[in-house]
Amino acid sequence: MLADMTDVPDAFGRLWTPHRMAYIKGENKPTGPGAGDGCPFCEIPKMDDADGLIVARGEVVYAVLNLYPYNSGHLMVCPYRHVPDYTDLDAAETAELAEFTQKALVTLREASGAQGFNVGMNLGHVAGAGIAAHLHQHVVPRWGGDTNFMPIVGQTRVLPQLLRDTRELLARAWPEKTS
């Protein structure tokens, strides 16, 4: 009976987000806390930039688009080294992580007109880290009015651009190395 109704128009618009099912099911999540346990942040740097959604590479950190973004342009700055906590970073990693965070802000302002940002780390599973074993800092661009009923009522994020297109835009706008 329901199958007969699938092509009957009604008053509701529907957004299909089948790519989210991979996140919901936990696909591509590490099998353990070690670097060799399928950590995506250890695997991504082995890929070419387009396939890995890498925006920029540094000496000890890299900037990558979030595969499951909160907003368009949602970047993460990750050390290459597999460490779980901010206090585990050495001086060079700490400095370049800060530099890449600044560059992410500049890039997102220039490329997308971001009006504000949420910047931060979730350290540990209880703090909300989806992958707690490998430190990563989120840089989430924000615009006035970007929060609407969709995430609250529909549990859906509306992203106006494909990740590959966003990566290309941000990679072109990334500032050259300054040091």
From TrEMBL:
Gene Ontology MF, one: nucleotide binding
Matches recorded under CDD domains: FHIT
Keyword rRNA-binding: no
Active-site residues (renumbered): 136
Protein name (database record): HIT domain-containing protein
Binding sites annotated in the UniProt record for substrate: 66, 138
Pfam families, per the entry: HIT
The UniProt record lists the keyword Nucleotide-binding: yes
Keywords for this protein: Nucleotide-binding
